[in-house]
Amino acid sequence: MNGLWFGFDENDDRSPLGVHIQMAHSWHYYCDEGCFNGFADCRLSASLYNHKVMVNNETGAIQLTMKRPAGIALNQWRMENEWRKCSYMWDGASFNRYNGACGCAGESNDCDHPKSAYGNDCAGRPCGPDSGRGFDRCLCDTKLITSSLHPRQCIWKGTAINPNGNNPKSDQTREMLKERLKHQHLHERPRHDENNMAYWNEIVVDVKQWARVLKEAPEDVVLAFVYRLDSNTGKRQAVKMRQTFVSMYNPKVIPPLVAIDVWAQPDETQDIFLAEPES
After folding, report:
1. Which residues of 161-200 are buried (b: 16+ CB within 10 A; e: fewer)?
2. Residue 192 has pLDDT above 60, yes or no
């Protein structure tokens, strides 16, 4: 995990992108369980962490999404080749987007309305890459949106953007990171003493495929359960999530607990992710 976090180099397309982590307080994902406020179904959001994005603008220390104390580090290979549906440079407000959080914004919050993100109806067909120009207009290919204050971020395509088949060559996550680096020095956030460096990005996971692997090979889903090194609450949450995961899926290998040092400086001699002895 430390190698992934330190390894990103925008000038080397062979370098790792970082670590995918969903910050969460409990083990649960929503898919085919009914509608809530018209939100997109089967949606799971994570963030991509490395030593150049989502870091403190003064110290370079890692900054966790919404300062949450616990989370789930996801299988890196699976994310890059199977699960990564789309990404947003900043918060994508994905709960209200078509195509499982990787589409244009929904037009209603009514669960019974076909134009809600849950309804996912575009001219009588499911919204997505095959639904025509209504989808294309929201891609970063068509309209590049770089401001973190824009309410409707453009979509950077991922491997799993098209539900009819994955294509790793179409993945634009690296391009998203490169573009973010050009703009994260700007002071756009409510606190003007901070620039965009610490603001989270959003990586949307294809939950349909995630759920399939959970049933077939649960040990391939979770890289580690993580928590803030300085948070007892975070450690309790991480322990409980792991217990729930193990009891539900009985993986062949139990994922480790890993602490995140949110004060460590960006020095390759000082680890950010720490595997502590379990008690």
Report:
1. bbbeebeeeebbbeebbebbeeebeeebbeeeebbbbbbb
2. no
